Automatic annotation (TrEMBL):
Domain SH2 residue range list: 59-144
Keyword Transport: no
SMART domains documented for this protein: SH2, SH3
Keywords: SH2 domain, SH3 domain
Pfam families from the UniProt entry: SH2
Domain of life of the source: Eukaryota
UniProt keyword annotation of Glycoprotein present: no
PROSITE patterns recorded: SH2 (PS50001), SH3 (PS50002)
Name of this chain's protein: SH3 domain-containing protein
SUPFAM superfamilies tied to this protein: SH2 domain, SH3-domain
Domain named SH3: residues: 1-56, 168-243
Organism annotation: Oikopleura dioica (Tunicate)
């Protein structure tokens, strides 16, 4: 989503961008105090109160899963759509090159079709490689415009969506040591970082099924850097102290 920096900001952590007033950026995830942003294909965080989305877009519903998207689009006209953060087969891994999914109602086939919105190394977004766009907003504008290459053709509709998503509670912890991840579903951090430890740990099962178990019963915790919920993963429990 297109955004603009409203104040100067000097990065504090290595995973952050510095900002200059008026700087244009793409926001990939705005679910925390720090937003995950893209600049020319590189992804880092920016403080949410230092940027302003150029406009609120009713079609972006954030972190919802495929079944919920299909339920929202159950009784809507042909071409009605929504954009959501891309759901991974492994819920603990976020593919940086594909942050979004597009869900579109196809009345003729009586289904909801799902498209992965790809992101190039340069930070451009596309459904099909012959049409790349500098931002998610521009991609959606192209496919809502009436022309013969607009496939799928998107029809803006007020979905009347109200989130029912409930996150599991977290416990604040402070890291004792630096931890460097060795697998893609782990979380790296430096010593003395604030980490939100999830009280329920996701345990992938066969297929797309996931069960959750209490963090008291595991040798590894699961959590995210405080204020940066997209930066999440597993880490050894003896590397942190619960506050």
């Amino acid at each position: 989503m297109e955004a603009e920096a409203i104040a100067d900001y000097v990065q504090v952590q290595g995973d952050e961008f510095s900002l200059t007033v008026g700087q244009q950026i793409n926001i990939l995830d705005n679910s925390g105090d720090f937003y995950l942003a893209d600049m020319e294909g590189e992804e880092r965080y920016v403080p949410g109160n230092y940027v302003k989305l150029k406009r609120q877009v009713p079609w972006f519903l954030g972190h919802i899963e495929r079944p919920e998207a299909e339920d929202i689009l159950r009784n809507v006209p042909h071409g009605a759509f929504l954009v959501r953060n891309h759901q991974q087969k492994d819920p603990n891994v976020r593919e940086k090159e594909s942050p979004f999914s597009l869900s579109v109602k196809n009345v003729s086939l009586q289904i909801v079709q799902h498209y992965k919105i790809n992101k190039s190394k340069e930070g451009h977004f596309w459904l099909y490689p012959q049409y790349e766009f500098a931002s998610l907003n521009k991609l959606i504008a192209w496919y809502t415009a009436p022309h013969e290459d607009s496939d799928p053709h998107l029809v803006p509709v007020d979905l009347g969506y109200r989130s029912t998503r409930r996150d599991f509670p977290t416990r604040l912890a402070i890291s004792r040591h630096t931890f460097k991840k060795e697998d893609t579903n782990e979380l790296s951090f430096e010593a003395n970082r604030e980490i939100e430890v999830h009280e329920k740990i996701p345990v992938p099962q066969e297929g797309r099924r996931v069960i959750y178990q209490s963090y008291d019963d595991t040798e590894w915790f699961y959590g995210h850097i405080k204020g940066k919920p997209a930066e999440k993963g597993f880490f050894p429990r003896d590397f942190v102290d619960i506050v």
